[in-house]
Every structure is written in structure tokens, then in C-alpha cells.
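Running this now, will post back.
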Amino acid sequence: MSAQGRSLELFFIDGRPDGMLTAEVFNWTGHVLRAPRTQLKEALQRREAGYTGVYLLFGEEEGRARLYIGEAEDMRERLRSHAQNKDWWDYAVLISAAADVLHKAHVKYLESRLVEIARDVGGAELENGNQPTRSSLSEAATANMESFIETLMMVLPAIRVDAFLNKKRSVVTATAQEPDDRAPIFAFKVPRHGVSATAILRDGEMIVRAGSIGRLEWVAERRNNTSYARLHRELVEHGVIVPDGDNGRFTSDFAFSSPSAAAAVLAGRAAHGRTHWVHISTGKTYAEWEEMQLERADP
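Update: finished.
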């Protein structure tokens, strides 16, 4: 993903944050419409619903996100059919391009690539049975579609679609005592349970390093349906955490949105990450280290 900033325009069609919205990026031909199933009639009345494009159907079953990815030369007709034949989905995302410039080969390529990405990320259970065939495009057209997907991967998380958001990270190995210009490194330990982990704070994410050891099971049974418990279960299911003796080992670097999220997954129960993570160079807790950084901040 390019480090250059981009401008995203969200338009809340009926003025509600949980209603229909559109998303567009300056100098990008793509157009994204997100609509709850309760507003499907209104969504299908919009012009872009009749365009050639790719659509995503999202729902949840037994606490697990569920996703179907499809393509159509007329998304309106295909979604009408899915409304009659698929009961599980709660909202849809329609992806098209300005002036309806995408054609069948384009959207078949997009569908195939989105299924590949979703399977690799494992953020949702795919309703698609088989891997769709990727259409044959020219070298230039393939490059255009990959550029389209790159921008789409920025847009979707911004409209609360996380099924394609890959939290696995490749982090350059750092020494235990990092120089001032390196990302800070923290340690998390629970000796009586054999938990020992390190993490790098980078770009606002707490990135737990590959090889870190945490609890293999979520031990707080009374709260086994929290967001942290579900995340722990998903990481085990998708092989990010694998058995290592009585515990679990991270097979790859993985980015968490907060110190507490990382701490909870490692501990197998809720944990206050701001006090449990310790900055390895100074010995200060995350909260103390953060306070020190804020004191140094210029106005």
C-alpha cells in the first residue's frame, strides 16, 4: 500500500451512520455502495446498482462473520435473487466504476482476486464454495485491476468492512535495545503460565512478534463471547497461533489495534495492556512510557 496520503469521500445518503453510504476516492474510478439489507429496496433503485460490478454479502452466524463474493453484469438482478435465496446476510457492498466502464472480464478478475484475499486473510467464513476462475486480461488491464484493488483495500476498512484487512505483518528484526529512531519494543510476561511475548509499536499498531508464546485456550469461560475471545479463537483457527506444549506460539507477526487487545489474546483473558506491557529499554509500563512521550511532545 502506498504511503502517500489519499482523500476519501463518504456520503451518508440518509444522514445515518448505520444507513446507506457511498465511498469514493479522488482520482479513482471506483464507486462503493454499502447498504443494510433493510434498505435493499432503496439501494437497488440507485443507478449504480444496475452496473456491472462485484458485490459482497455480509452476515454473522454463531458469532462468526460470514461473507459471499459475487459478480454480475447487472448487480440489481443478482441481489434480488440473493434476497430470495439467501437468508443469512445483513448488508451488501456493491463495487462498480464510474460510467459503468467495467466489463465482464474485469469483474470476474476482481471476484477471483477478492476471494483469494479473503481466504488468505481468514477474517470471515466464505460462503463461496470454489475459487472463481480468474479471467484472462491483457498485461495492462491486469495492472489496472491490481491498482483498482489496492485502492479498494483502503476504502473497505474505512466503511467498516474488515474481512480483507490483513493483520499479519512482516517486521524487520530489531535488537533488544532499540536506538531512538527505531520503533519501540515492549515485553509481556506471565511467568506462572509460561507466557512470554514481545511486540513492536508501529503506525499505531501493537505488532506481536512471531515466536511469542501465549495461552492456547481462552480461559475466561464466563466471557468467551467477547471480541477478544472471538479474535483469539480466529487466530487459532487460522494458524496464526499454533500449539507449543501447553501454550500457543505465534507463527507470524500480527498487528493488534491496542495494547489491551494484544495482551488479552496472549493471556487468554481480559488484560490491561497499558500496565502489563513493559518497554524493554526503560522498564516502564506502556502507560508510563506513553506519558513520557507526551511530555516530550511539542505544542
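Residues 171-181 have pLDDT under 50 and may be disordered. More later if anyone needs it.
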